[in-house]
Design a protein that fits this description.
The complex is a heterodimer of chains A (846) and B (140). Chain A has 846 residues and is α/β, with parallel strands linked by helices. In chain A, α5 (97-112) packs across α6 (117-125), α22 (455-473) packs across α23 (479-492) and α38 crosses α39. Chain B is mainly α and 140 residues long. Chain B has a domain at 74-140. Helix content of chain B is 86%, strand content 0%. Chain B has helices at 3-15, 18-28, 31-73, 75-80, 92-139. In chain B, α1 runs antiparallel to α2 (18-28) and α3 runs antiparallel to α5 (92-139). The longest helix of chain B is centred in the C-terminal third of the chain and has 48 residues, at 92-139. Chain B is elongated, with a radius of gyration of 31 Å. Chain B starts with a helix and ends with a helix. Classes of the chains: A alpha/beta (846), B mainly alpha (140). The interface between A and B is medium-sized, with 35 and 33 residues.
C-alpha cells in the first residue's frame, strides 16, 4: 500500500485463504511447535549427548521464536522509521502475535457473519483490557459503546452473495480493508513511538479508515482520536514519571533524607560550610529523587542555558508571575547537570539555592549583612563549581529601618566580573519597580520572560500530577475531566497563572468527589464545582431554564410594554450564551439603548436582571452623569498605588455573571469611555494593579438620551425603528467615538410611548402595588377601569414618557391609601375597591 | 503456480488416486507455502536476533553501564582535568599532588572498566559460540 512518501507492505496471503485453510495452518504450526518442544525435552532428558545438544538447540530456538512472536518479531526502531521514509517496509514483522490473532478473529467473524470488517475489529478491540481501561479513563460509557457496535454489526451485515464473482469481490474488499487498517496502525505506532503495532495503535488506525458507520458511533459517544492518543501517551508517560512526582512530594514533605556531596567528581572544588548552612543544594535532590520534571518552558530553559554558558555576563534573571514554573526551570537544570546533559561550562557543577532570609536573619546593621555576603562570595569563588540560584532576587534591595542592607553592593562586583554564574527570579511587577529602576541591578542580569503554560502543556502536567494524586485520594480522574479543569481554570481563575490555577482546581475537585463519595471524576463534576464557585451558569441548561429562555420575550413583556426590538435582541443574546454560541471574546452582549426619557431603557435592564440574574439588586449600575472628570477613571478601575479600588472592576470580580447598566452614557467623561473599548472587544480589562478582569460573562447595557428628538421626529414622520437605526448610528458619532459605537452588538432606538402603552404600564404598576399591599398589609385592592384611565391621563406626557406615572400613583393612590390605613378605616384582611368619582380617587371597603 | 506445487502435483497425480491428488492440489495452492515460508522465516529471524540484535543490545547496555559507573568514578573527567590541582590548590605541592592522585584514580577506574569490558567480551564470545558449539556437538 502506498502512503504518501512511504511504501508499506502488509502481506495478506494468509487472509486470501479460506477459513478452513487458515485453521489448518494454525493447527499445523501449533502442532509443530508443541511437537518440537516435546521432542526437544525428550532429547534433552535422554542419555545421548548429541541428542541432548539437539534438544537444547531446539528448545532455545522454539522458546526464542515463541517469545518473539508474542512481542513482535522486529521492533519499530529509528532505523525502521528512516527506512519507512526512503524505502519500503514489510509490516508483518512488526505485528505481534496478540494483535495478529485479534485481526484474524475479526476477519473470521466478518467472513462468517458477513459483518463489516472494520466494525468487527472495533468490536474485538474494545473487549481487550487495554482499550477498555483506556475508554473508561476517558469517561466513555464502555457498555454503551459495546452495545452500539454490536447493534451496528447486526444491522449492517452484508447479505450473503450467491454468485462467486460477487463473493470474491466482497472478500477482496475485506482484505483491502485489512491491509489498510494494519498500515494505518503501523503509522500510528510509529507516531506514538511504540515497539510494535499495539492494540492502541490499531484502534487509532480505525479512525483513519473513516468508516462512516464506525465514525457515527464514535462521534456520538464523543470518542475522538486526539483524546485517545493524548490520553494513551500521557498515561504511559505518567507511569514512568508519576513515581518521580511521588518521590518529589516525599522530598518536599521531608520523608526522605538526602545525602550531601561536598566535593565534585573532578575533586577540583572546595568545601563550602557557610554556604551549606544558608542554602539548599538542588543537585543533591536531583541525584536522589529526581526533581525538576519540566513541562513546557522549553524556550526559557534554552535561553537560560545559553546565558549561563557564556564567558561574560552569565547571569540570568527569570521574570514571571508566582507559581508559573521559574523554580522548576532551575530544578530541571540541576537534573540535567547530574545527567551530564549540559554544556561544558556547567559540567560537574552544583546548583545551590540561596536563602536570603537565613543570611540576613539576626543581622542588626548593614555592615553585618555585608560581612556575611562577603564570606559567602569568597567561599563560592574559592569552590569554583557553584551556580548560584537566588529566588526573589529583588530582596537584595530590601531595607530594614529605612536603610538598604547592602547585599547588592557586595554581590554586584562579583556578578559583574562573571566569577559565579547566577540565576535570579522575580515577578514582572517587582522587576519594573525595583530592578529596572536600579541601574546596577538592571545591567548585571539578562532577563528571560517566563510565560505561563498553554492548555496542552498544563494538561500534560496535570496528567502526571493526577497519577500521584489518584494514589493518595483513591479516586480515578478521567482524562476529559483533566482537560476540563485546565480549560476552566484558564478561563475563570486568571488571578493565578497556569499550571497553578489548574493544580488548585484539581485538588478542590478531588475533595469535592470525596465528599460526594464518587470514585471517578468526570467533567460534569468539574463544571458543577466551577459554576458554584464563580456563580456563572456553566452547566447544560435544565428543562426549566430552557423553557424560561425560549419564552424570555413573553416573560419580559409581561413586565415591560413594547420596545420589541430591544427585548428580542437581549433575549437572543442570552439564549446564544447559554448554549455556547456567543463569541469567545467580548461580553455576552453589549447594547446601546437610545431614546427619550421614561420609555423603558432602564426598566428593561431591571426586568431582565430580575428574570435571569436572580434579582434586580444584583445589577451593577452606574449613573455615568456622576463621572465627568478624569478622576472617574480611577473610580472605575482603581489606582496604581492601590489606594483607590475600582468600583467597576471590583463589582465584576465579585459577580462575574451579571448585568452592567451604564445610565446616561453620553454624559460621562470622554476619557472614561475609552476603558470600554477593550471590554467590548476582547471581554477583559487590566485594572490599575495589572490584574486581569474578565467581562466575558456580563451583559453590558448603556442608555443614552442622545438624539431623542431625532428619533421622535422620525417616528412622527411614519418611520419604523429598523428604518432609523442606520442613520442614528452615524448621528451618534457626535457624542461617541466611531470605534466605540462599532463595538456595540446593537444600537437600539427606543421610541416614545403612546397613550395606550402608558395605560398598559399603569395596569402593570397598579398590579405591582396590589401585590405590595397584600404582602405588607394583607389588604386586597381592586381597581376599576376608570382608575387606570384617570392615572393614565394624569401621568401621560409625550416628553417625559412613563416617568410622571410614579408621581401620579404616589399622589393619587398611595398617599390617600396610607391615610386610610392610618385612620383605621381599613384593617388587615379587608378588601377595598378603588374607583374614580367626580375626578377624585375613592376607596370603598367591601 | 509455484514450482514446488507443480512437482508435488505431478507426484501425487502419478502415484495416488484422483481424489487424493485433488486434495493435495488444494493444499499446494497456499497452505504449505505459508507454513514453509513461516518455518524458514523463523529460522532466519532466530539467527538475526541471536547474533545481530542481541549483540547490539548487549554492547549498548555495557556502554550505558560504564557511563553510569563513570558518574561515580569520574574517570573521563579526571583524564580531562589531569593536570588541574585538587581542591583548587595552585601551590607547588598542589600542582604536584594533583596529577599523582589522578593517576591512581584514573588507573583504578580504567582497570575496573577494562575488567568489565573483558568480562563482557568473554561472555559475548561464549554467547556467540554457543550455537556453533551445539551444532558441532550434535554432528560429532
Amino acid at each position: 500500500m502506498d502512503v504518501p512518501g512511504r511504501k508499506l507492505f502488509f502481506d495478506t496471503g494468509y487472509f486470501r485463504l479460506s477459513y478452513f485453510e487458515r485453521l489448518v495452518i494454525k493447527a499445523i504450526l501449533m502442532a509443530l511447535v508443541v511437537c518440537g518442544i516435546t521432542v526437544s525435552i525428550v532429547f534433552l532428558s535422554g542419555p545421548f549427548k548429541g541428542f541432548q545438544m539437539l534438544g537444547l538447540l531446539g528448545l532455545i530456538f522454539l522458546l526464542d521464536t515463541i517469545v518473539s512472536q508474542f512481542r513482535g518479531e522486529q521492533s519499530i526502531t529509528s532505523k525502521v522509521l528512516r527506512q519507512s521514509e526512503t524505502g519500503s517496509v514489510f509490516i508483518n514483522h512488526f505485528v505481534g502475535w496478540k494483535t495478529f490473532s485479534l485481526i484474524d478473529k475479526a476477519f473470521n467473524r466478518s467472513e462468517s457473519h458477513s459483518a463489516p470488517f472494520v466494525l468487527a475489529v472495533c468490536a474485538e478491540l474494545i473487549h481487550t483490557g487495554e482499550i477498555k481501561y483506556g475508554l473508561q479513563r476517558l469517561g466513555i460509557n464502555w457498555r454503551e459503546l459495546v452495545v452500539a457496535v454490536e447493534t451496528k454489526i447486526n444491522n449492517t451485515s452484508v447479505p450473503a452473495a450467491s454468485f462467486d464473482g460477487v463473493r470474491e469481490d466482497i472478500t477482496a474488499g475485506r482484505i483491502a480493508q485489512c491491509e489498510s487498517l494494519v498500515v494505518q496502525g503501523f503509522l500510528e505506532a510509529l507516531d506514538m513511538g511504540d515497539r510494535t503495532v499495539s492494540y492502541f495503535a490499531l484502534f487509532l488506525g480505525l479512525f483513519a479508515t473513516k468508516n462512516s458507520d464506525l465514525m457515527g458511533i464514535l462521534t456520538k459517544l464523543s470518542v475522538t482520536r486526539d483524546d485517545i492518543k493524548n490520553a494513551t501517551i500521557s498515561s504511559r508517560l505518567s507511569k514512568e514519571i508519576g513515581g518521580d512526582i511521588i518521590r518529589q512530594r516525599g522530598l518536599a514533605a521531608g520523608r526522605f533524607k538526602k545525602s550531601h556531596r561536598i566535593m565534585n567528581r573532578a575533586w577540583t572544588a572546595r568545601p563550602t560550610p557557610y554556604l551549606d548552612n544558608v542554602s539548599e543544594d538542588l543537585t543533591d535532590s536531583a541525584r536522589h529523587y529526581r526533581i525538576g520534571l519540566l513541562v513546557g518552558h522549553k524556550e526559557s530553559y534554552r535561553q537560560m542555558l545559553a546565558i549561563l554558558s557564556r564567558d561574560g555576563r552569565n547571569n540570568a534573571l527569570l521574570v514571571g508571575d508566582e507559581d508559573i514554573g521559574r523554580n522548576t526551570i532551575v530544578q530541571h537544570l540541576a537534573f540535567n547537570v547530574i545527567k551530564d546533559n549540559v554544556p561544558e561550562k556547567l559540567f560537574d557543577r552544583r546548583i545551590v539555592k540561596l536563602d536570603l532570609g537565613l543570611i540576613t536573619s539576626g543581622a542588626q546593621t548593614a555592615g553585618e549583612v555585608q560581612e556575611r555576603f562577603k564570606k559567602l562570595t569568597d567561599e563560592i569563588i574559592r569552590a569554583g563549581n557553584i551556580v548560584l540560584f537566588i529566588p526573589d532576587i529583588h530582596n537584595l534591595k530590601f531595607t530594614v529601618g529605612g536603610q538598604e542592607m547592602g547585599g547588592l553592593e557586595i554581590l554586584a562586583p562579583v556578578f559583574d566580573a562573571a566569577l559565579i554564574p547566577v540565576i535570579g527570579t522575580t515577578t514582572p511587577k517587582l522587576y519594573r519597580s525595583i530592578i529596572e529602576t536600579t541601574q546596577t541591578f538592571r545591567d548585571l542580569f539578562e532577563s528571560i520572560q517566563v510565560e505561563g503554560l498553554n492548555q496542552q502543556e498544563a494538561t500534560q502536567l496535570l496528567v502526571y500530577e493526577a497519577y500521584a494524586l489518584e494514589r493518595l485520594w483513591k479516586i480515578t480522574i478521567s482524562y476529559p475531566a483533566l482537560k476540563k479543569i485546565v480549560e476552566l481554570a484558564e478561563r475563570y481563575f486568571r488571578a493565578r497563572p497556569l499550571p497553578r490555577a489548574s493544580l488548585d482546581l484539581l485538588q478542590e475537585t478531588l475533595a469535592e468527589a470525596q465528599q460526594r463519595g464518587q470514585k471517578i471524576v468526570l467533567p460534569e463534576l468539574v463544571v458543577n464545582l466551577v459554576s458554584r464557585k464563580t456563580n456563572i451558569p456553566l452547566e447544560a441548561t435544565t428543562q426549566r431554564e430552557a423553557i424560561v429562555l425560549l419564552n424570555l420575550e413573553q416573560e419580559i413583556h409581561a413586565k415591560l410594554i413594547n420596545q420589541e426590538e430591544a427585548v428580542k435582541a437581549v433575549s437572543a443574546a442570552l439564549r446564544q450564551y447559554r448554549v455556547g454560541l456567543s463569541r469567545d471574546k467580548g461580553p455576552i452582549a453589549s447594547f446601546l439603548f437610545v431614546g427619550p426619557t421614561g420609555v423603558g431603557k432602564t426598566e428593561l435592564s431591571k426586568v431582565l436582571c430580575g428574570l435571569y440574574f436572580g434579582s434586580e439588586d444584583t445589577m451593577i449600575r452606574f449613573d455615568m452623569s456622576q463621572y465627568q472628570d478624569d478622576k472617574s477613571i480611577s473610580a472605575f478601575i482603581g489606582s496604581a498605588d492601590g489606594m483607590i479600588t475600582g468600583m467597576l472592576t471590583e463589582a465584576v470580580k465579585r459577580t462575574p455573571f451579571s448585568l452592567i447598566l451604564l445610565d446616561e452614557f453620553e454624559k460621562s467623561y470622554r476619557g472614561l469611555l475609552d476603558i470600554f473599548l477593550p471590554i467590548f472587544d476582547e471581554g477583559y480589562i487590566m485594572d490599575a494593579m495589572g490584574e486581569h478582569i474578565d467581562f466575558r460573562n456580563t451583559i453590558i447595557i448603556c442608555t443614552s438620551n442622545a438624539h431623542s428628538t431625532y428619533i421622535k421626529d422620525q417616528i412622527d414622520a411614519g418611520k419604523t425603528i429598523p428604518d432609523i437605526q442606520g442613520n442614528l448610528k452615524s448621528k451618534l458619532t457626535e457624542y461617541f467615538k466611531p470605534e466605540l459605537l462599532n463595538r456595540f452588538d446593537g444600537i437600539i432606538a427606543f421610541r416614545q410611548l403612546t397613550r395606550e402603552e402608558i395605560r398598559k404600564i399603569v395596569v402593570l404598576q397598579l398590579a405591582k402595588l396590589k401585590k405590595q399591599i397584600i404582602r405588607t398589609q394583607n389588604i386586597d385592592m381592586n381597581f376599576t377601569d376608570g382608575v387606570y384611565d384617570f392615572i393614565c391621563q394624569l401621568g401621560y406626557d409625550p416628553v417625559f414618557g412613563a416617568r410622571p406615572l410614579q408621581g401620579a400613583i404616589s399622589l393619587q393612590i398611595k398617599d390617600p391609601l396610607a391615610r386610610y390605613i392610618l385612620e383605621g378605616k381599613v384593617h388587615k384582611g379587608d378588601s377595598i375597591t378603588v374607583s374614580v368619582e367626580n375626578g377624585d380617587i375613592v376607596f370603598e371597603k367591601q | 503456480m509455484r514450482r514446488s506445487s507443480l512437482l508435488l502435483k505431478k507426484l501425487y497425480s502419478d502415484r495416488w488416486p484422483r481424489a487424493l491428488s485433488q486434495f493435495s492440489l488444494w493444499y499446494n495452492e497456499g497452505v504449505i507455502d505459508i507454513i514453509v515460508k513461516q518455518i524458514i522465516h523463523s529460522g532466519t529471524c532466530f539467527i538475526k536476533r541471536w547474533y545481530v540484535e542481541r549483540t547490539l543490545w548487549f554492547w549498548s547496555r555495557i556502554s550505558d553501564t560504564i557511563h553510569l559507573m563513570d558518574r561515580h568514578f569520574a574517570v573521563f573527567i579526571n583524564i580531562k582535568l589531569f593536570f588541574t590541582p585538587l581542591y583548587g590548590d595552585y601551590s607547588f605541592m598542589g600542582k604536584l599532588l594533583g596529577p599523582l592522585f589522578r593517576v591512581w584514580r584514573v588507573s583504578a577506574g580504567l582497570a575496573l572498566y577494562s575488567f568489565l569490558c573483558i568480562a563482557a567480551a568473554a561472555f559475548w564470545t561464549g554467547y556467540c559460540l554457543f550455537i556453533p558449539y551445539l551444532i558441532i556437538k550434535i554432528i560429532t
